[in-house]
TrEMBL record:
InterPro entries: EXOC2/Sec5, EXOC2/Sec5_N_dom, Ig-like_fold, Ig_E-set, IPT_dom. Keywords: Exocytosis, Protein transport, Transport. Component of the exocyst complex. Residues 423-435 have a biased composition (Polar residues). The keyword Protein transport applies. The gene is EXOC2. It comes from Gekko japonicus (Schlegel's Japanese gecko). It holds the Pfam family TIG. This is Exocyst complex component 2. Residues 8-91 form the IPT/TIG domain. Residues 420-440, 637-658 are annotated as: Disordered. Belongs to the SEC5 family.
Length: 855
């Protein structure tokens, strides 16, 4: 006989010792292909084939028989592999004899099943008793896709315990490659199993054969005794006596074993209860496990256990299970509240917020935790912004801190680039004390500047997480796969679409608070009275110096760029653009106002030293002052992408930057007039600070008290000409280059004012020079009682003409030494005045003699 498979090999048995009829599990290799293939099984030399149950090619379950040997091998014989071998052995124990009233441990079968199903009449075997392989042959899973099988057998199932069981589906799925001979063996196995069910529980009969035989022998003996006695025919004699004896014996036995049987029932109940506790210890221990895991922070474990308990016991009708499941729900509800409190707690990171939202969604929390978190974050950001303002306002008033914050000197935006403005405003400072002065005071930030920096950093640090949380809420990335399957993600997306306007309002409120808080600190005049009470409160006695405004503008610009990087819509950020525009205009205004103050101080710097072109340093210094102001404003004047050009006009400044520029020019023109008409001692210094009006401030000024008024007028006239032809035109060009619009109008106004001053000064100078000459003509003509009707023959030009010519020549020399360009303009007017006076005097003469006419 040839075998196609290897012989069976037993490698393990559990338990490895026991008394007769002990149930054992045999494990090994090649233990047969099915029930029909298993033809022999011996343990310690005793055949156990009648109680053998083939489970798989590596497992057989059976009961040990009444063997003679105390220890022996386990031998398995199959049709396909023949007689096998064993590497383990089984030890047969002899049971101790127990008396009729002796106590003994009660064996409780561990295979007892506690049936939870409310409907117990379906006839479905419990899961632990269902055969894993009903055909008794090896299962060979095919490669047919489950979806195709479902389409091929609609409404059917491959589960043999189902009411819609399809045999064809089961065979295709599990035995598509099984041979026909093996299928025949499977049919024989099914018939054998059916015969077992019809014949009853054959295993119990086999196990009690000896008892049946002994009972039969006893009955036969009794029957023979009765026949031999012959008294069974007597009614009620032997049979009645025997019945009475048996009844008494039964009653005595019941009395004797009542206590033993009670202990047995109690032990069975205890074992059954322990069995139930063991099988459902997950549910019974779950409340305590939930408490422990919550304390450790293992929320994922709690959620997984809760989902498992909900699927198993959520709809149970067993009272004890309902009681424990209700306790689980109580603990989970407390966990929901704890997670919601942690979610709404501030401050918290975006990672923690997403984690808590996912936990709450998996726990099916009521409401919308994600939206609640967004609302809490919005309120917290607004509160942070107002708290920041209150702390700095108190600090400014001296109620909190004793020192002002210092800016980082290594930052890219330093006020030192504007420091020259203050140096030019103070002109020439003394070198002894000023050079050694500690200049770190320049970098001490005012409270408003430090507040804007802190406020923008706060918004830039908090708003990105707030915006990302909303984006995650919209696209559903806050939820786990469990929430996605339950449809919670779709509901969340629908809620997000409905709340887009609400979130937009939140962002606008944050932007509005940011802008108004900055306006309250830097531009309080741009807020209404009610808004100023809420967003203001700063000390406004001293105006913020112009050197800090560019730094503030740079800070707000960086904040705007950071928010733009989040892809926040531009319409929500337009209010910040408006703020930047107003700050730029305000910075231009303050800088030009400082330039105006510098222009006033230029009057004190006039040294009256004239160069070859008849100019002093004053026009050049004025031009440099204005040019430096424009240069210091370059970063402010240049418009970034998305910003509105300042155009020289402001939304909050009625006059606008161009008006300030015109004021600067007008102040300088007034300084020229003041210089031309007042001596040095009369120059107005009330606008100068104590430091500026110090004695050593104007070390380079020439205190030439002999400088005449006429010379001052000529020098100022020369400067006015240069301003008109060069300086104002150059400044207008630079203003246009820096984006100012309407410069022509302002330039024309300044030109008109300058020309008016020039004309007044010119008339004043002509009056000073021409009047003495004109006034000397008439007295000179009639000196010595000169009479035009009676005069001598003239021998030359009379002295009054010579004196007039000498005076004209002196004027020419005076003008020429100052400015050659003024000579024609001045002399023409003086000669014209002299000629007009001579013409008038000649017209007054009634008649001339011959000599008089010749004269």
């Amino acid at each position: 006989m040839s075998h196609t498979r290897k012989p069976p090999l037993v490698t393990g048995i559990s338990p490895n010792e026991g008394i007769a009829w002990t149930k054992v599990t045999i494990r090994g290799e090649n233990l047969g292909t099915g029930t029909a293939d298993l033809i022999g099984l011996t343990i310690c030399g005793h055949s156990c084939i009648l109680t053998a149950e083939w489970m798989s090619a590596s497992k057989i379950v059976c009961r040990v028989g009444q063997a003679k040997n105390e220890k022996g091998d386990i031998i398995v014989t199959t049709r396909s592999g023949g007689r096998g071998t064993s590497t383990v052995s089984f030890k047969l124990l002899k049971p101790e004899k127990i008396g009729i009233l002796d106590q003994s441990a009660v064996w409780v079968e561990e295979m007892n099943y506690y049936d939870m199903r409310p409907d117990r009449n379906k006839g479905m075997p419990p899961l632990s008793l269902r055969p894993a392989n009903p055909l008794g042959i090896e299962i060979d899973k095919g490669r047919f896709p489950p979806k195709e099988l479902e389409a091929l057998f609609p409404g059917m199932s491959a589960d043999f315990t189902s009411e819609n069981f399809s045999a064809a589906w089961y065979l295709i799925e599990n035995h598509s490659a099984t041979s026909f001979d093996q299928l025949k063996m499977a049919v024989m196995h099914l018939k054998k199993q059916a015969n077992k069910k019809n014949e009853g529980s054959l295993a119990y009969v086999k196990g009690g054969l000896s008892t049946f035989f002994e009972a039969q022998d006893a009955l036969s003996a009794i029957h023979q005794k009765l026949e031999a006695d012959g008294t069974e025919k007597v009614e009620g004699s032997m049979t009645q006596k025997l019945e009475n004896v048996l009844n008494r014996a039964s009653n005595t036995a019941d009395t004797l074993f009542q206590e033993v049987l009670g202990r047995k029932d109690k032990a069975d109940s205890t074992r059954n209860a322990l069995n139930v506790l063991q099988r459902f210890k997950f549910l019974f221990n779950l409340p305590l496990n939930i408490e422990r895991n919550i304390q450790k922070g293992d929320y994922d474990v709690v959620i997984n256990d809760y989902e498992k308990a909900k699927s198993l016991f959520g709809k149970t009708e067993v009272q004890v299970f309902k009681k424990y499941y209700a306790e689980v729900e109580t603990r989970v509800e407390a966990l929901r509240k704890l997670l919601l409190d942690k979610l709404l707690e501030t401050p918290s990171t975006l990672h923690d917020q997403k984690r808590y939202i996912r936990y709450l969604s998996d726990l099916h929390a009521e409401g919308d935790p994600a939206w609640q978190c967004i609302g809490a974050q919005h309120k917290w950001i607004l509160q942070l912004m107002h708290n920041c303002k209150e702390s700095y306002v108190k600090e400014q008033k001296g109620h909190v801190l004793a020192h002002s914050p210092m800016l980082d000197l290594d930052t890219e935006v330093r006020p030192s680039s504007l420091g020259h403005l203050s140096r030019s405003a103070s002109l020439k400072r003394g070198s002894s004390n000023q050079s050694s002065r500690d200049e770190t005071w320049r970098f001490k930030a005012p409270q408003q500047v430090a507040f804007v920096e802190k406020l923008t950093k706060l918004v830039v640090s908090q708003l990105p997480n707030f915006w990302k949380l909303w984006i995650s809420y919209v696209n559903g990335s806050l939820f786990s796969e469990t929430a996605e399957k339950s449809g919670q993600m779709e509901r969340s997306k629908k809620n997000a679409r409905q709340r887009q306007n609400d979130f937009k309002t939140m962002i606008q409120q944050v932007m509005k608070s940011l802008v108004k808080l900055i306006r309250g600190a830097l531009l309080p005049f741009s807020l209404g009275e009610n808004e100023l009470r809420e967003y203001g409160g700063w000390e406004t006695k001293s105006e913020l110096s112009g050197q800090w405004l560019p730094h503030v503008i740079q800070t707000v610009r960086l904040c705007y760029e950071s928010l733009t990087a989040l892809e926040i819509p531009n319409d929500m950020l337009q209010i910040i653009q408006d703020l930047i525009f107003d700050l730029r205009v305000r910075c231009i205004m303050i800088t030009l106002q400082h330039t105006t103050e510098d222009a006033k101080r230029l009057a004190e710097k006039e040294d009256w030293v004239v160069d070859n072109e008849g100019l002093t340093c004053l026009p050049s210094q004025f031009e440099q002052c204005v040019m430096h102001s424009l240069q210091s404003l370059k970063g402010v004047l240049d418009s970034r992408p998305g910003e509105t050009s300042h155009g020289g006009q402001g939304t909050q400044e009625p006059a606008g930057p161009l008006g300030a520029a015109a004021s600067t020019a007008q102040v300088f023109i007034d300084c020229l007039e003041q210089l031309s008409t007042k001596p040095d001692s009369d120059v107005d210094t009330t606008h100068l600070s104590a430091d500026v009006s110090s004695p050593d401030l104007f070390g380079s000024i020439h205190e030439d008290s002999s400088l005449s008024l006429e010379r001052r007028l000529l020098i100022v006239l020369s400067n006015c000409c240069y301003l008109e032809r060069h300086t104002f035109l150059n400044l207008a060009e630079h203003f246009e280059k820096h984006g100012f619009q309407g410069v022509e109008k302002i330039t024309q106004v300044s030109m008109d004012s300058l020309k008016e001053l020039d004309q007044r000064l010119f008339e004043m100078y002509i009056e000073l020079k021409a009047d003495p000459i004109v006034g000397s003509l008439e007295p000179g003509i009639y000196a010595g009682y000169f009479d035009w009707k009676d005069c001598l023959t003239p021998t030359g030009v009379r002295n009054y003409l010579k004196e007039a010519l000498v005076h004209i020549i002196a004027v020419h020399a005076e003008v020429f030494t100052v400015s050659k360009e003024l000579v024609p303009r001045v002399l023409s007017r003086i000669v014209e005045a002299v000629a007009e006076e001579l013409s008038r005097l000649m017209q007054c003469v009634s008649s001339f003699s011959r000599n008089g006419a010749l004269q």
